[in-house]
Amino acid sequence: MHSAAKQLLGLAGWLLLAFSAAALGSVASVNAGSFYQQLARPIWAPAPSVFGPVWSVLYLLMGIAAWLVWRERGFAYARTALSLFFVQLVANALWSWLFFAWRQGALAFAEILLLWALILATMIAFWRIRPLAGLLLTPYLVWVSFAAVLTFVLWQLNPSLLA
């Protein structure tokens, strides 16, 4: 059993890692609200104000899930699962750059499909170590599934704004 201080530091570290990906993506999304408002959007597209709270909860759940896996096995014995977690965080941050900063609709759509596969692989790897950790990533996979459909539709509706 790990000490309480080590557990709290571990939790803080995994949350910091998850929210660092959020911060990296948010740099690319600094003008996302105004750009999103310019886009032709389907009627079912969320309002811009929805994204921040949803992503905040998802990053919190991601950090807790990674912490649970780390707590269960440590990095040395959960290297594959935690490496997948890190790679999907990089892919997560990259999407914002592709879509909002570089306005590459086709690449953003292809990349979000890769992100979806990475999340699924991470969920499975986490589930095998600590089922609750895999379960905590379910809302993330559901949201990215929705975001993938939205990305595709926005790209198709806005060919002049999203290459």
What is the topology?
Blueprint: H1 4-28, H2 32-38, H3 48-77, H4 79-101, H5 105-129, H6 131-136, H7 138-157
Helix pairs in contact: 1-3, 1-4, 3-4, 4-5, 5-7
Number of helices: 7
| Tally of DSSP β-strands | 0
Main pleated-sheet profile: none
The helix-strand sequence is HHHHHHH
> What is the mean predicted local confidence, pLDDT?
96
Cα distance, first to last residue? 52 Å
Low-confidence stretches: none
Helix/strand/pairing category: mainly alpha
Helix content: over 70%
How would the global form be characterised?
elongated
Radius of gyration: 17 Å
Strand content: under 5%
Q: What is shown here, in short?
A:
The protein is mainly alpha-helical.
Task: Report on this structure.
By secondary structure, the chain is mostly helical. The radius of gyration is 17 Å and the shape is elongated. The chain has helices at 4-28, 32-38, 48-77, 79-101, 105-129, 131-136, 138-157. The chain has seven helices and no strands.
Main attributes of the structure:
83% helix; mainly alpha; 163 residues; 7 helices
